[in-house]
Amino acid sequence: MSEQFKPNIVAFLCNWCTYAGADLAGTSRIQYPANVKIIRVMCSGRVNPLYVVNALQQGADGVLISGCHPGDCHYMEGNYYARRRLKLLKELLEFTGVDPRRFNMSWVSASEGHKWKEVVEKAVEDAIAAGPFDQFRRRQIGW
Amino acid sequence: MTEKPKLGVYVCHCGINISATVDVEAVSDYAQGLPNVVVARNYSYMCSDPGQLLIKDDIKEYGLNRIVVASCSPRMHEPTFRKALQEVGLNPYFLEMANIREQCSWVHQDREEATAKAKNLVAAAVAKVRLLEPLAPREVDAEPAALVIGAGIAGIQASLDIADAGFKVYLVEQSPSVGGRMAQLDKTFPTLDCSACILTPKMVDVANHPNIELLAYSEVEEVSGFVGNFEVKVRRKARYVDVSKCTGCGDCAEACRLANRFPSEFDEGMGKRSAIYLPFPQAVPAKYTIDPEKCLFLTRGRCGKSPKCVDACKPGAIDFEQKDEIVSFKVGAIIVATGFDVFDANKKPEYGYSDYPNVITGLEMERLVSASGPTGGEILVDNGEEKIVPKEIAFIQCVGSRDQSVGNEYCSRVCCMYTAKQAHLIKDKIPDATVKVYYIDVRAFGKGFEEFYDRVRREGIRYVRGNPSEIFKEGNKLVVKVEDTLTATPREDKFDLVVLAVGLTPRSDDRKIIDLLRLSQSPDRFLMEAHPKLRPVDTASDGIFLAGCCQGPKDIPDTVAQAKGAAASAMIPLARGKVAIDAQVAEVIEDTCRGCGFCVSICPYSAIELVTINRMGNMVEVARVNEALCKGCGSCSAGCLSNSIQPRSFRDRQILPQIAALGGIE
Q1: How far apart are CA A39 and CA B234, in angstroms?
Q2: What does the DSSP 8-state code read for residue B529?
Q3: Tens digits of per-residue pLDDT, B323-336?
Q4: Is B421 helix (H, G, I), strand (E, B) or coil?
Q5: Which terminal Cβ of chain B has fewer Cβ within 10 Å, N or C?
Q6: CB-based contacts of B418: which residues, under 8 Å, 6+ apart?
Q7: Domain region containing B123
Q8: pLDDT at B3 (0 to 100)
Q9: Is the pLDDT of residue A138 over 70?
C-alpha cells in the first residue's frame, strides 16, 4: 500500500528565506518529489496554527512549515513565534491521536536549495510512513 | 468588492522551461473550468510585451477584474504583471501568481505529476485571487541622504557619486582611516597604475566634499525604519585625540614609550607602529589615534610620570577623557561596502605559513614591493638566518580558493592576476631572480588580462601546472613538493621565498552588519544580492544596496562599477523624494477586537497601539495599526484570539481557500 500511496503535503513558506530557497532549488534544477505544494506567506510567524489543522481537514496528509533560521528572521522574531506556537500545536495534535510525523517544521535559508530538497524528502517520507490521513476530514466548505 | 469576480488565467510556457515538463495546454483547459474563470490562455512568454498585451486586451474586452498568472516565481515577475494590470486601470493587487516554474517544472521530471501539481497550484491561486481586495500603495517622503558603510574604494566611489549628485552622504568607516584594501596595494593589474596615486586623491575628496560627512573610526550601532526613512545610530569611537587640534605631525608616535612596538595592521604585521598611531602616512583623516588596548595609560592608568605623547604634543590634542559618542541621523538609502578579508593561510598548514618567515601571503608581498611599505619597496626576506634578497621565488595559486577542504568552492577572481603582477614587479626589481608560478588554471578573463599574462610569461616567469602538496625546509631553502601535472612528474623545487596567492573571503565581522540590516548570505557566505543577473546591487530589503567585495570577490574595476551601480540605485528614492510603502499591511477589524493587547506585545516594530473608541455608546479599547511602521509580517494575526487583526492580501479568508484548493477534497 505504501508503495502506491502518494501523500499530499501542504507547505507554508516564508517569503524571505524558504520560499527564496525553494526558488533557488528550482533555478539549480534540484529534483524532489512533487507531493509538496507551497503556500507563500510573508513570515512563518503568519502561520496560524489553525491553518495546519485546516489543511489536515481539507485533505492534506502532511503539513510542512519552513522559515528563516532562528536569528535570521526578516521581521526580527516572527520565526520564534512560529516555533513556539507550532510546538504547542504539535503536542496538541499528538494528544488528539494525530501521528506527529504528519507535521514537519524546518529552517531553510535563501541559499539552501539543497536543504529544501532534503526537507521535502523527509516530509514525504514521514507522511508515507504515517499513511493516508482521514481522521479530521469533513465536507468541503464553500467559500 | 461586491462586483462579481471575473477571472483571467494565463499559463506561461516560458519558452520550454515550463512546457517541457508541464502540459500547459491541459493546465489552461483545466483553469477554464474553474469557478469564475472567464478566460484561460497559454502563451510562450507571458512576461514579454505581446504576453502582457494579451492580458491587457482581455481585461478590456472581457471586463476581467482578477488575474492569475501561472509562470515563474512572484519574486521574479510579480512587479511586472502588477504594472501591466495598473496600465489598463485595474488595481495592481488583483493579481495572484502560481509558481509553476521554480517550484514545479524545474524540480520535477514526471510530466503527469508535474502537470497535476501545476493544476493544483493554479486552482489555489484562483481560489485566493477571487477574494483579494484592492489596495492603494501609499507614498511617504524619502530623506534625501544616504548611509555608506565601509570606506574602501567601493564606499568611497559610491559616496562621491551620491554626493556629487547633490545628496548628503554619511560615510562610516570602522578603522581610523579611509582607503580600505586598495590603499595597501602597490601597483594594480593589468595596467600597473600606482594604487596610491589613483586612490589617495579620492580619499581626500571624500574628506573635503561639502556633502559628505565622514565618520571614520566609527561603527553603525543601530538601524531601524525602512526605505526612504532609515533611522541610524553610529558610535564614534574615542580616538583619545582631539581631531580639531591634531595636526598629524607625528611627534606623539615617536615619543610614545611603546614606540614601534606593535605590528602595523596596514603593513600586514610586517611593519611596526606605536600605541598612538596613524595607520599609514597618507591616511585620511590625517589624525592620530590611541589604541586603547595597547596604550599604557589607558590599560594601566599610568605611563611613567606623565604620558610622553601628552608632553610631545604641542597643540595639546591628547585627551584621555574622551568618550565614545553616539551620532543619530536619518537616511533614505543604505549602501553596504564592507569589503573582504584575505584567506587565513594558517588553514593550509601544509604550506607552513606560521612556521617559516619566508612563506608570505600575497597581501604581505604587496606591502613588501610597495615604496610605502616596511622595507621602502626593497624585497627583503628573512630566511630564518638572515635578511636576504630572494633569488628564487615561487607563487602558489588558489590558496583558499576553489578548495572544498577549506570550505571555499569559489574562485577569488583576483589571485591569478595579482600573482602575474607581483611576478612582474619582482622581475623588475630583481632582474636575475627566477620566478615560478604553480597554478591549477590561469584565469585571465578581464579586459587586458590575457595580454598581461602573455607579457609576464614572455618576461621569463615560469608557469608550472600543479597544486603543491607541501612546503618544508632544507638548509636555508624552502622546498615545494609538487606534481607537474602536464608531464606527470613529481618534483621538489627549492626557493628563498614562497608567496601564497591567498583568496578573498567574507569578512569575519560581517555578522554584525547581517544582523543589523537583516541581509542574506549566498552559499559562499558573501552577502546575497536580490537577483544574480538583474538586481546585482540590490538586496532583498528595499533601499539597501551592496557594493564591492562584500557581495563576492572582485577586482578594482568591477568594484568601482558596482559601487557606481549601487550609488545610482540608491539615488532613485533620494531623487524622487518619495517612496511607495507596501500596502500589504495589517488591519484591525474594530468590531470584533476585544482590546486584549496581545498583538501589541507581539509586534516587533511597535506598530500597534491600543486606542479607546466609542463602540455603540461604550468606550472600549481596540488595537490600531500604524501603517507606516507595519511591515506586514502577520505575526500579530496568527496570535490574535479573535482573528480581528489581518494582514491585507494574506487574510485568513484569503489563505484558507488556498489551503482548501491544495487539500483537494471534492
Answers
A1: 40
A2: P
A3: 999 999 999 999 99
A4: helix
A5: C
A6: B189, B362, B366, B501
A7: 7-129
A8: 79
A9: no
For residues B226 and B139, what is the distance between their CA atoms, to the nearest angstrom? 12
SS (H, E, C) chain A: CCCCCCCCEEEEEECCCHHHHHHHHHHCCCCCCCCEEEEEECCHHHCCHHHHHHHHHCCCCEEEEEECCCCCCCCCCHHHHHHHHHHHHHHHHHHCCCCHHHEEEEECCCCCHHHHHHHHHHHHHHHHHHCCCCCCCCCCCCC
Report which of residues B124 and A136 the model is more confident about.
B124
Are B66 and B115 part of one and the same domain?
Answer: yes
Q: What are phi and psi of B160, to 5 degrees?
A: -65, -40
Omega before B285 within 30 of 0, i.e. cis: yes
Contact criterion met (CB < 8 Å) for A58 and B664: yes
CA angle, B383 then B388 then B391, to 5°: 95
**A48 neighbourhood in chain B, CB within 8 Å:** 637-638, 652
Mean pLDDT of A16-44: 95
**pLDDT, tens digit, for every residue of B460-495?**
999 999 999 999 999 999 999 999 999 999 999 999
Q: Given a cut of 80, is residue A139 above it in pLDDT?
A: no
Q: Quick one: DSSP state of residue B405?
A: G
What is the CATH number assigned to the segment(s) A9-142?
3.40.50
**pLDDT for B66-102, tens place per residue?**
999 999 999 999 999 999 999 999 999 999 999 999 9
Tell me, yes or no, whether B350 and B459 share the same domain: yes
Give the total number of structural domains in chain B: 5
Residue B383 has pLDDT above 90, yes or no: no
Are the beta carbons of B662 and A81 separated by less than 8 Å?
no
Give me the interface pTM, i.e. the ipTM: 0.94
pLDDT band at residue B385, thresholds of 50, 70 and 90? confident
Nearest-CA distance from A11 to chain B in Å?
A: 9
Inform me whether the C-beta atom of residue B53 falls under 8 Å from chain A C-beta atoms: no
Q: Do residue B361 and residue B493 come from a single domain?
A: yes
Same domain, B358 and B431: yes
A42 and B632 within 8 Å at the Cβ level: the answer is yes
B positions 617-636 inside 8 Å of A (CB): 631-635
Q: Which of B505, B535, B565 is the last residue of a domain?
A: B505
Each domain of chain A, given as residue ranges in start order, spans 9-142
| pLDDT tens figures, B46-57 | 999 999 999 999
**B1 pLDDT above the threshold of 60:** no
B659·A76 Cβ contact <8 A: no
* Residue B317: inside a domain: no
Q: A52: nearest CA in chain B?
A: B659
Spell out which residues of chain B touch residue A143, defining contact as CB-CB under 8 Å: 127, 131, 653, 656-657, 660
B666 pLDDT higher than 70 = no
Q: Per-residue pLDDT for A142 more than 80? A: no
Last residue of a domain, one of B578, B599, B622: B578
* A52/chain B closest Cα distance in angstroms: 9
- B586: CB partners within 8 A, 6+ apart: B607, B608, B625, B630, B632, B634, B636, B637, B645, B646, B647, B648
Closest in A23, A27, A46 to B647, CB measured: A46
Q: Are residues B468 and B478 in the same domain?
A: yes
B656 in a structural domain: no
